[in-house]
Amino acid sequence: MKYKILILILFCGCNTLLAQVKHEREFRIKKKEFPSAAHDLLKDKVVAAKKLKYYKEIDSLKISYEAKFRKDKLWYSIEFNEEGVLEDIEISIKAIDVPNETYEAIQNYLSTNFISFKIKKIQQQYTAKDSIDATFKNAFQNLMLPSVNYELVVDAKKERGYEQFEILFNAEGTFLKIRKSLPPNYDHVLY
Fold first, then answer.
1. Rg of the chain (C-alpha set)
2. CA 107, CA 129: separation in Å to the nearest integer?
3. What pLDDT, on a 0 to 100 scale, did the predictor assign at position 143?
4. How far apart are CA 85 and CA 53, in angstroms?
């Protein structure tokens, strides 16, 4: 009997560990703090970028770096790991830019899993599964490929109160993953 209770307690403890929020903070850094390999790649691949800014993103599992800029009237975010290896390229888009069937599948998922919701941001994501050249080419040409993912930031209500979630869908609108977002951490007063 003691062993059954002990196993039950351990099982419940493991489940609460799996349900924890992933703590993530993003803050702006200087160009010299950005990984040199990533900076060299940006210098080679990104031409005519405006408002280029560098960020460091720290969460409970990893550290990554992002370069955010505007090019050809679109906002881009290029993410690298600590060594400066390309992870993905994201483009901020509007709901009208998502194919109709995909958007309907996303809306269906959101309406069945939340009492109410509001989509705050949509990003089209090109992961670095292909070669670096192909990933940049596909992203800068804004191609609709079967490998594209859609990352949504959603304010949603489950039982009580609104929370912010980051939800990932594939090109068909099939749910891939969800995680609860934390509000931004400001070191200054906002007015």
1. 19
2. 27
3. 87
4. 18
Length in residues, the chain: 191
Please name each of the domains of the chain with its CATH number.
21-180 (3.10.450.360)
pTM of the predicted protein model? 0.81
Q: Which two tokens stand for residue 172?
A: 């068909």
Structure-token match 């509007």, residue found: 94
Neighbours of 20 (CB within 10 A): 9
Contact 156, 165 (CB under 8 A): yes
pLDDT tens-digit profile of 175-188?
999 988 876 655 55
Burial class of residue 190 (count of CB atoms within 10 Å of its CB; 0-12, 13-18, 19+): exposed
C-alpha–C-alpha distance, residues 172 and 36, integer Å: 36
3-state secondary structure 59-72: ECCCEEEEEEEEEC
Distance of CA 163 to the CA centre of its chain: 16
